[in-house]
């Protein structure tokens, strides 16, 4: 306990915690807001991480910081809110103003990326029913109840968290691409939705066993070399009674999508998907086909009855 409080006994480190209270930030972004060099900021971050006040996640050449578990950090914020004097409050307010420039830069970067890739995405969307119809079907499949801990695998731009994060007590987005995670952060920052975004592999998720109540794979599985293994890994992090929802294409013969859009699998048969669910300890309770274009979008939903998988720590 003494070591923990000693780690907090520095105005810069208190500023770091207050900034991370607002949003996940990279080392470079923190240095920008604090007006300090990255090496100096990194030293402060190491002290806070060693004390268990924050967590560090590497994404490519970037390192992102997020607060530790709320049970550990909420009492700290209550103490800060109670004891902060006028001088430190003014410093926090100045940091918050500079933080807005980080939000703006993220939004601008996301806009540039979307504009550059809009034509490709529009081409794929033109082959199936309207995205709004797909999203309504997803909402219907998930229901209106509390989703608990929601994990969105292959989160991409964070659209699923944007839609369903407000129904969850905790939202976690995982993607292999650090660029996509930066885009998702920019989008979710503008909506005010709190989420933990992490870089990870679909076959080795950076999560412990049975942590999730709801897992979504939205238009992800057709990029997987081993979709059965991806389904099994999604089931591993799902708790007993939890729901797995996969949204992808039904089997088709648009072979050119392998070349133009890097699709590895040309959709999936219901029987094959049902077998993968069963092998992972899940019972399929809903299959819905959304026709209306050259490609049919299918929703497969399953429930994990028991926790039968081998337990292991997060990758």
Automatic annotation (TrEMBL):
SMART domains per UniProt: HTH_ARSR
Pfam family, one: Methyltransf_11
Residue ranges occupied by any HTH arsR-type domain in the UniProt entry: 1-87
GO-annotated molecular function: DNA-binding transcription factor activity; S-adenosylmethionine-dependent methyltransferase activity
Protein name as annotated: Metalloregulator ArsR/SmtB family transcription factor
SUPFAM superfamilies linked to this entry: S-adenosyl-L-methionine-dependent methyltransferases (SSF53335), Winged helix' DNA-binding domain (SSF46785)
Annotated Gene3D superfamilies: Vaccinia Virus protein VP39 (3.40.50.150), Winged helix-like DNA-binding domain superfamily/Winged helix DNA-binding domain (1.10.10.10)
InterPro entries per UniProt: ArsR-like_HTH (IPR011991), HTH_ArsR_DNA-bd_dom (IPR001845), Methyltransf_11 (IPR013216), Methyltransf_Superfamily (IPR050508), SAM-dependent_MTases_sf (IPR029063), WH-like_DNA-bd_sf (IPR036388), WH_DNA-bd_sf (IPR036390)
